[in-house]
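FORM 7B: Structural annotation worksheet

SECTION A. Query
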Amino acid sequence: MKEQITDTLMMIRPVAFHRNEQTAVNNYYQKTLEGLSQDQIQTQALKEFDNFVEKLRAEGVDVLVFEDTKEPETPDSIFPNNWVSFHESGEVIMYPMYAENRRLERRDDLIEKLGEQFKITKLSAFVDWEAENKFLEGTGSLIFDRQNQIAYAAISERTHPDVIEDFKMHTGCEVVAFQANQTVNDQRLPIYHTNVMMCVGEGFAVICDESIDSPVEKKKVLKAFENTGKEVVFITEEQKERFAGNMLQVKNKKGDKFVVMSESAYQSLDQQQKTRISYHGRILHSSLDTIECLGGGSARCMMAEVFLPRK
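SECTION B. Predicted structure
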């Protein structure tokens, strides 16, 4: 059976983090911070990043940190899970990105560097879809249940059905696709990434089912969880707004399990939710306020899971 959780993560240390105007058009989680200079924003984001990495490493999780480069300008490089995924088979997959400046985050040098430690047997790319303005943003768009060869995908401008079909044909993975929305100025609009409203772990799933307006689609997703034996922890739309859906189950070298999230997400959960999640791994939480506010992404977005076999 395939592994669902890894003990190795790739993370990108930011060099010029700031709000990305190209992604803000459909990422309604991005806000502005008044009264802070670009240098102050970068300093705060870097502190949050380093503290987060330190907490993961202190628990024995292997975190491979790569430095971002000043040129080209990539304000969202801190979220590498959108452009690449690393698989047990040795395959590396690169994905088509909605924002033009996010496409610059794809770095062959990082993959070459990983190739020094890990066996990379195949490099696949779906990036040609960008020419047709159709996108699929990695594990932001696709929530993998690796054990059962299923991916969950909320359709949006960044998660296109045609690219999903291409992905299915390439991987043989079943995809449970659905529409997930949030209320913006009294309108129900698509949530930009699936991993904002749900997470799938080894024996559990966290989901904001209130985001799925269609009763038929909601039933389809919950039935898939039931069929694969996942304990379901429901979160509210308010908790989702605080990134409670944006969590990831990881393990350390000894096999101890953790569920990783931001401080904001942790504080939004009630005691019963925390207890149920803790059954699947000790909760690790770290303050990511600046990154969440300006980047519109949280803990899960910052961690690219490495499942590649070691050399």
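SECTION C. Observations
The chain has eleven helices and 17 strands. The CA atoms of residues 258 and 281 lie 4 Å apart.

SECTION D. Sign-off
Analyst initials: ____
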